[in-house]
Amino acid sequence: MKTISITIISLLISCTIFSQKRAIKITHHILQKEIIIKENKRIKIKTTGGDKISGRFKIENNSIIIKGTQIEISDIETIKRNPLLLSILITGLFTYGGALMLGFGALIGALVNPSAFLLAIPATGMIYIGAKSPNFNRKFKRDKNWRVEIITPSI
Length: 155
Hints:
By secondary structure, this protein is of the alpha+beta class. Helix content is 37%, strand content 32%. It folds into two domains: 21-82 and 137-151, no CATH class; 86-132. It has a six-stranded antiparallel β-sheet with strand order 6-5-4-3-7-8, with no helix packed on it. The chain has a three-stranded antiparallel β-sheet with strand order 2-1-9, with no helix packed on it. Strand 1 (23-28) and strand 2 form a beta hairpin. Helix 2 packs antiparallel against helix 3.
């Protein structure tokens, strides 16, 4: 029993020591800033061909694979993070906030003051923004001197 547990622990330790996850390093050589996005994180990419692709990415042979689409590093025009929790919170906030505003506007407009129907205008805008799922994270553009490369970060 003792040898089995020692073998399992040593296998787990060796896997974590020798496995190296790759990442995307985004650098701005004038400002001396660098951002590292580890593999399997959610990102949004716009290619030089105009395609917009978002999802979790994997790195293979100096290219990125998102939803089965292989994108070369040289073809990336813009890149930005797209965290799932933030997307869910912002979408829910705008959608449910707009629905509440629309409901209260209709209720107050019917029972108290007809000018409350005007709340339907910003409410529909909020519902539309919630359905569009905005991303407020910073976009890194190749035109603005941001360079994208693949690295293997040290532990």
